[in-house]
Amino acid sequence: MIEIGIVLGSTRPGRVGDQVARWVHERASRRTDARFTLIDLRDHPLPHLEQPPGFSGQYSDERTRAWAATVAACDGFVLVTPEYNHSVPGVLKNAMDVVHLEWNTKAAGFVSYGGVGGARSVEQLRLVCGALQLADVAPQVTLPLATEFADRATFAPGEHQLTALDTVLDHVVAWSTALAPLRRGDAEAAIRGRIDAMIDGLRSKDLEALRRSYAADVVSFDVEPPLQHVGVDAKLKNWAKVFTIFEEVDYELRDLTVAVSGDLAVGHGFGRVSGTLKNGVTTEGMWVRATFVFRDTGDGWVIGHDQASVPFDVATGRGLTDLEP
């Protein structure tokens, strides 16, 4: 089911935005076409651009990683925003700036409040959404302090605002659903990038770089005994053994196909380790059938299971290691 995050974009003491966000969430929760989660930026005290923009999806700061996971878990958003000095609250702008890929190919709608209903804040947010590849829907809910808040402090919206809110929610859910195929494409690109990083780690004999490609509890069915290697340390021990044999190591992956569903993905192809041995002999290695199972941890895609196998001759029981794809 489509997941929509309702982002409360103000952390100011005495804010009225929490009343608005609860109103949006209560109304949205009655729907059956999506799940809605209230996301309060007070629960995400983010650094202020302490690292480069998140075009790679990799973040060094723990707070940023937690926020990236929250954004990544959503298929679309309703941004609840006030207008401060004719503009967007700094805390909301910063929350949108510190991550990047996690916003891409999703939809966003707006519920704004303020002296003129927060309209100028939304106009600026639409520009930000364009840069983040967020599809901003046209309908919006505009809540002037003078008419929708008793004494400019207690939220008391008119009934007509429910119709406006329902329209925004309709559009956000529809566009989030329509963009789902593009998000799967983003996931496949990220997975192929993870495979490329793993291959780079192999070629440079960098075990720590390889560690980042695997889940801590990875289960590997490798060509070497035993039947399974459990945990990332066991997996890296296998690669460390390869590095002791090769002076220079190479890895080729051919015909990789990736299928993504939610936070799980499967890839399969043909892999081959080759290179120059410690004694100076060059070997082309053997082709194996390679299967990978990935899962999205929120910090990125990692390998939770892999398998390397060769076909065998039924009559002799010997593996066939001279086949080529």
Helix content: 25-40%
What is the radius of gyration computed over CA atoms, rounded to a whole number of angstroms?
A: 25 Å
Query: What share of the residues does DSSP label as strand, in percent?
Result: 25-35%
Instruction: Give the number of DSSP strands.
Output: 14
Number of helices: 9
CATH class of the largest domain: Alpha Beta
* Topology-level CATH name of the largest domain: Rossmann fold
- Spell out the helices and strands N to C: EHEHEHEHEHEEHHHEEHEEEEE
CATH H-tier superfamily of the largest domain: Flavodoxin domain
Q: Return the domain count.
A: 2
Q: Provide the low-confidence segments as ranges.
A: none
Summarize the main sheet: 7 strands, mixed
Structural class: alpha/beta
Oligomeric form: single chain
Architecture of the largest domain, CATH level 2? Answer: 3-Layer(aba) Sandwich
Mean pLDDT: 91
Label the overall shape.
Answer: elongated
Terminal CA distance: 39 Å
